Input
Amino acid sequence: MAQRWTMKILVASWGLALFTASVGAQEDWSAPQHRQFDFWLGKWDVNLRMIQPDKTWKDSVQAKVEIYSILDGKAILELWDSPTIKGFSLRHYDPATKQWVLYLNWPSKSSSSVGSLRGQFRHGRGEFIARGRRPDGGVSVSRYTFCDITPHSLRWDDAYSRDGGKTWTNNWIMEFSRTAKLAELPVGPTAHTFANGGRCVGAEFDRIAKLAGTWRGQVKVKGELVPATLRAHKVLDGCSVIAFLEYTHSGNAYKSFSLFTYNKSKGQFVELWLDNQRGTHAAVLRGSEDGRVLTLLARGSTHLPKHVWTASEDFHTLRFESRTTTDLTLRATFRRKLTKQDAMFAKAINNVCPRSGKPIVADALTTYRGHVIGFCNAGCRDDFAANVEQRPQDRAFFDKIMSQKK
Output
């Protein structure tokens, strides 16, 4: 029997469930406070200036940024891309606190996590703050500021305080220049910020990456089966996957957004989630593996319904169940049609070619030591297959990946 990957998600009952048993009325996101970040929608070129040791500023990084409106306008999604820096953010307005809530994921090499800030706009200037405790017991404060906003440009800078906000230092300034009014959401298995998948490596990131693609199935809502679609895309050069789920019941459209990643330093899987329903807020869930089960918890929870994902070994089928402490509230099944070549491609242990660093392709696969491996073209594949013993660098590349998966 083929092994299965099971993801069990436990979340707070006060509106943080990944799916809901019934679809409620959507909020009217057209109110001015929900639209305060609309100036940022579209595509931008960004000049990143960094502070130097002599306190002067230097143009350091040129980036391409795409900003999207998602969940019927409830939230803003950012994908920030350059050869050296990749970035993500999700932000939405919280009517209860009258603040914007920002969630960020800017991974370094094989290190990925989610942080957050809160803030608001005053007099055309947006300020967003995060507070944390330093190892010495002091309070550190981060402040991100949007200002100098025009239809064609804006400035985003940082400030950090190590004394609780008494004094501040700056590290960078981002200067945005608009290149397009709108950015289109992704349609394929990869999205803006994905290059060759080499930024975050390891079995956990490989597992998340295999969610990428389009899944179609059914959700059972109040005893009725309705069509559902799940679209997932690899981003941040292999460090994360973003996913959009949609279904309609009784004329109301349900939509949710998730970002999946793995915090290697803490040994935790992380999910950032938000849907388009009234009164719900973004939630960060964290957890770890226990055998083939992944359990994620939202902080501060008391009453916990249970969500279970099960994926077949070839990632052909995804099954989902949602349970309260006593009842099954939702069940969904998703499938994607895989050719034999697609199924083999899904099993490949590497994302990039050992020779060029480019993404592997489905028609350049072979096997090595019982594992499916890939190259960027059929020529490299045929050369390796015919001369395995004479290609020590290739072997070392694959041997390292296999040792990490143990």
About this structure: The chain has four helices and 23 strands. The longest strand covers residues 57-70. The radius of gyration is 22 Å.
